[in-house]
Design a protein that fits this description.
With 137 residues, this protein is an alpha/beta fold. It has four helices and five strands; from the N terminus they run E-E-E-H-E-H-H-E-H.
């Protein structure tokens, strides 16, 4: 079974955004992923991180637990809250299709301090973009 940590970072809401994904098996990192995703809201960034994580993980294993510090994402994926935002509804449909590739997928909320690896990657993606855009900084 995979343990997947995801995080989306947004500097501003909306603002420059990045995603971070850490996938582990038996406590060992299998893969890490980071990407600058442009201007997004914080919730869009969180969902984008989840989508990318499921895309990657579906090729590795059919059993996964996803950990996120976004209560909104976790509550919505566990059907405790409805998705009302139009943009989020679109990405949620895409995520539902990805979930069908798994035999079992569980969503768990973790405090921010237990999600630091994914958070660091998401922020690093933004930092690398800014450094590339402004190499003198």
């Amino acid at each position: 079974m995979l343990a997947i940590n995801t995080d989306g970072a947004s500097r501003g809401n909306p603002g420059l955004s990045g995603i971070g994904v850490v996938i582990k098996r038996d406590g060992h990192i299998i893969t890490e992923y980071k990407e600058f995703i442009g201007q997004r809201t914080n919730n869009q960034a969180e969902y984008s991180a989840l989508k990318k994580a499921l895309e990657i993980a579906s090729a590795i294993d059919k059993y996964a637990t996803v950990f996120s510090d976004s209560e909104l994402v976790i509550n919505q994926r566990n059907n405790k809250m409805k998705v009302r935002n139009k943009q989020l509804k679109i990405i949620c449909r895409e995520i539902s299709k990805l979930e069908s590739h798994f035999n079992s997928i569980v969503y768990r909320h973790v405090p921010r301090e237990k999600n630091t690896e994914a958070d660091i990657l998401a922020n690093k993606a933004i930092d690398e973009y800014l450094k590339y855009k402004n190499p003198k900084v």
